[in-house]
Amino acid sequence: MARLTYLERRNGTYYARIDIPVDLVAHIGSEVRKKSLRTKDENEAKKRLWPVIEAWRAEFEDVRARREITADDKAAAVWQHYEATIQRDEQKRRAMPTPADMDAEEQRLLRRIEKGEINSDSFAGMINAHTELELMLRARTDDANRRARRLTALKAALSSGDIKLIEPAVRDFIGRHRLLVEVGSDEYRELCTLMTRAEVEGLERTLERDRGNYSGAPTDPIVRPVTGTTRETAAPGERIMEVFAIYERENPKNIKADTLAQARRDIGTFVDYVGSTYPVHRIDKKAVREWKALLLNYPVKATETKAFEGMKIAQIVKHNEKIGKPTISTNTVNRYLSGLGAFCTWLKDNGYLDSNPVTEMFLTKKKDKVVFPFKVDQMNTLFKSPFFTGCQSDDAPRFWSKPGNVLIRDHRYWVPLIMLYSGARPAEIAQLAVSDVRQEHGHWVMHITDKGTVITRA
Length: 458
What we know:
With 458 residues, the protein is mostly helical. 53% of the residues lie in helices and 8% in strands. The protein is built from 16 helices and eight strands. It has helices spanning 25-28, 42-65, 71-95, 99-114, 123-160, 167-176, 186-210, 240-250, 257-274, 285-295, 313-323, 330-349, 376-383, 386-389, 411-422, 426-430; strands at residues 7-10, 13-19, 32-36, 67-68, 179-180, 437-440, 443-450, 453-457. The protein has a three-stranded antiparallel β-sheet with strand order 1-2-3, with helices on one face. Strands 6-7-8 form a three-stranded antiparallel β-sheet, with no helix packed on it. Helix 5 crosses helix 7, helix 8 runs antiparallel to helix 9 and helix 9 (257-274) crosses helix 12. The two termini are 66 Å apart.
């Protein structure tokens, strides 16, 4: 009996082994993951195997759900951390003892002394009794000193490149926004620096407030209110492709299955750009506009090209600047937009969106395009080719141009011939039923319909 795919034996010991999905190799940093199951017994190894495999799969799904960090994310990180610093200070000030609180504690202490509960016979008892009052009297000064020391330490960290002090806040931001930022990477260190500068500004404002000045504003130019928005994580059931599945099931316009499948693939590139956790209600013109800009430079058959394997749409477009593959046409860009636009119309009708963000986003088709008919010698060349007269094999396109005994006689053979003799379009021919080809008044006709309108060609 063959051993399980995920189980590997080496020097008598069993290991769990899994291939990293191609689209995650760049993020995880390896192609294979292995872990010792710490047993030489195969049955025991099988018991220990699946928890390891499931944990890895969960990790892969978590990485897939994350997205690349954007400039908007960085700006939000700075402003949010600045505001959080101010808010923490405000909360502490509200919790600080007031003069009335300190008077009440002092009176309570005097009453205990008068009752003889506290006396000079017990030095330790006197110290303990006065501790609460001393802490209340020193609370504001101690907190101000702590903030001042933190400020000094952060400024020193900025000059030395030390990120230890700010890392907890940075990791929290990355986790909450489900960002793909590798610890120790340039993006990670940049985020640490930006958030350190934000906290420095916040602490300086708190020290100004110690002196009664509440009018201070950030002086560091990076610390400013966010003009963009971070991409929030969708609640369960509100991710774009989750809602698209509902749209598919309802299919309100009775769209053909292959058209829906094409729309799913096209909208998948939009999700590839905004992230799989992007909420459906956040689809807006800015996101569609940025996606369209990428489509204008998106290479033909990118998903089938090995050079782009495992890359997201933005990475594909960037990499194509180096290798120069031809890009998709205006009509194809409009097809992508059309698929998303139809989906967004349904989203609007069903209350997910207030308006359709794809409206007025389509590209203008070129009007100077000229279509030249085939000449007789060109048609002779086409229809005398091995594809029509007999080719080497139908296993792959590369065999179609090589002479042989294989006769292709499916739609690829008949549709061009019918087009030649009838002048009908490919779509008109493809939708014909056998009953649509018949005799009327002694003439053979093709009964071609288009949305209920009958077109008859003799």
